[in-house]
């Protein structure tokens, strides 16, 4: 099965494509090969490659920058996702698309299911929800995977940031009023494979099991690495980021297990694997 991936050079692609290539023939594209906002380029790419599946990893993911770049966020995360969906539907190609917990406002106190009503609190979340809606309207058989709090090898992520700050300053201030599911990017590879192989459609939550705050996550990181650092909890208000983050965005991933038999490991096991 031939799998064309967009946004292949990002954090997610870098971590999952070496695993997915054990099961699929991977054609890794990034913006240099196909800017997904360009429908004509997409037509040419599809006619040349003739993929069975398109895995759309391309996105504008700088959450705070999105607040100042509404049109760019909507063009990449919303309109372009719709373009890819139109092309997939027209050429009978399976589409798998990556979305986010930021489609929710975080006002729940119990884990979000795929059926909960989205209500984004940021431009990034609005643009990703727009993409979801356009995909389902243009390509009803598409698969949308919502995930969150991603980290992995290559590039910058929460773990690389917080450990660098700790080593430079000997102290780290970390938000303690946002709760979610830290997710090792590599752990998305098997769910993606299974959803493709089993030809599943619709929305699926995919994240490592359990939940914690960013402060809890940082504590586990420093403990695992034996880094002696003064760790101070702060509030989201104190951090004063431009974009609002969901206060609570824990996922219920039981639909994934029911439909594929795949059980996500705990965030602690995944973290220790990453750090090990």
Task: Outline the secondary-structure elements.
Layout (H helix, E strand, L loop, with lengths): L1 E5 L4 H10 L4 E4 L10 H11 L3 E4 L6 H4 L3 H21 L3 E7 L22 H16 L4 E5 L2 E2 L6 H12 L1 E5 L3 E2 L2 E2 L4 H9 L4 E4 L6 E2 H12 L4 E5 L1 H4 L14 H7 L6 H9 L1
What is the structure about, briefly put?
The chain has 276 residues and is of the alpha/beta class.
Radius of gyration, taken over Cα atoms and rounded to an integer in Å: 18 Å
| CATH class bucket of the domain at 2-148 and 184-207 and 250-265 | Alpha Beta
Strand content: 15-25%
Mean pLDDT: 97
Helix count equals 11
* Largest sheet: spatial strand order: 2-1-3-4-5-10
Low-pLDDT parts are none
Topology, number of strands? 12
Reported by name, the CATH topology of the domain at 2-148 and 184-207 and 250-265 is Rossmann fold
Briefly note the structural class of the backbone. Answer: alpha/beta
Largest sheet: 6 strands, parallel
Tell me which oligomeric state these chains represent: single chain
Distance between the termini: 33 Å
Shape: globular
**What's the order of the H and E elements?**
EHEHEHHEHEEHEEEHEEHEHHH
Q: What's the CATH H-level homologous superfamily of the domain at 2-148 and 184-207 and 250-265?
A: NAD(P)-binding Rossmann-like Domain
Helix content: 40-55%
CATH architecture of the domain at 2-148 and 184-207 and 250-265: 3-Layer(aba) Sandwich
């Amino acid at each position: 099965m031939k799998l064309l991936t967009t946004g292949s050079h990002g954090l997610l692609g870098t971590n999952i494509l070496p695993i997915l290539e054990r099961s699929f023939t991977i054609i890794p594209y990034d913006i240099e090969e196909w800017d997904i906002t360009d429908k004509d380029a997409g037509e040419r790419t599809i006619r040349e490659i003739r993929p069975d599946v398109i895995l759309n990893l391309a996105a504008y993911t700088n959450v705070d920058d999105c607040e100042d770049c509404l049109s760019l966020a909507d063009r990449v995360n919303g309109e372009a996702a719709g373009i890819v969906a139109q092309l997939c539907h027209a050429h009978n190609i399976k589409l798998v698309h990556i979305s986010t917990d930021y489609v929710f406002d975080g006002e729940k106190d119990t884990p979000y299911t795929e059926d909960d009503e989205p209500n984004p609190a940021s431009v990034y979340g609005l643009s990703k929800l727009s993409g979801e809606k356009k995909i389902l309207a243009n390509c009803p058989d598409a698969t949308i995977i919502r995930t969150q709090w991603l980290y992995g090898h290559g590039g910058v992520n929460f773990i690389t940031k917080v450990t660098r700050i700790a080593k430079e300053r000997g102290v780290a201030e970390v938000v303690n009023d946002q709760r979610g599911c830290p997710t090792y990017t590599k752990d998305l590879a098997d769910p993606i494979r299974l959803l493709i192989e089993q030809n599943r459609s619709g929305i699926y939550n995919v994240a490592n099991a359990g939940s914690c705050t960013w402060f809890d996550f940082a504590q586990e990181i420093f403990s695992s690495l034996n880094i002696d650092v003064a760790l101070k909890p702060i509030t989201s208000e104190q951090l004063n980021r431009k974009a609002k983050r969901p206060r609570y965005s824990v996922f219920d991933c039981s639909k994934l297990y029911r439909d594929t038999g795949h059980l996500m490991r705990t965030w602690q096991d995944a973290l220790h694997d990453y750090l090990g």
